[in-house]
Specification:
Non-ribosomal Peptide Synthetase Peptidyl Carrier Protein, Chain A, 7 helices, alpha/beta, 2 domains
Length: 149
């Protein structure tokens, strides 16, 4: 059914991690499907069995991830929330106006690249160049407040 729909990845959650979930991951791997076991969305009889299943899959047949890794990185819900994300990244003690160049306030390229990578999970077209062309809170809010397609 996955192949018919053009998919090759399987996210696995549930109970009995060391029985059904681990077996499902291994079976998927044998069928050229990439299994992802969600460690914090699995249950088992004991901690040891839970960890054994995660270790087995991670070492042999799939990838073990946390729920947070599968969810899109949140973008700020408002311009004020964007400011709260940006201000701790600045070197200056003065707060910039929304149309001030954030590079003038100490925002470096490494932090800008990290923001681009985070926001790209929601808006796939956002990249470092796009942020660097107009590094202001106003410009970035315009990018982030667009409707997600």
């Amino acid at each position: 059914m996955l192949k018919e729909s053009g998919r090759n990845q399987l996210i696995i959650t549930g109970v009995y991690a060391h029985i059904g979930c681990m077996t499902t991951a291994t079976d998927a791997f044998m069928r050229d499907i990439k299994p992802f076991m969600v460690a914090d969305a699995l249950a088992d009889f004991s901690r040891d069995e839970h960890l054994m299943s995660l270790k087995y899959v991670a070492g042999r047949s799939g990838r073990v991830v946390m729920t947070e890794e599968l969810l899109p990185a949140p973008v700020p819900a408002s311009k004020a929330a964007l400011r709260e994300v940006i201000l701790p990244l600045l070197d200056e003690s003065d707060e910039p106006f929304d149309d001030d160049n954030l590079i003038d306030y100490g925002l470096d390229s490494v932090r800008m690249m990290a923001l681009a990578a985070r926001w790209r999970k929601v808006h796939g077209d956002i990249d470092f160049v796009m942020l660097a062309k107009n590094p202001t809170i106003d410009a970035w809010w315009k990018l982030l407040s667009r409707e997600v397609k």
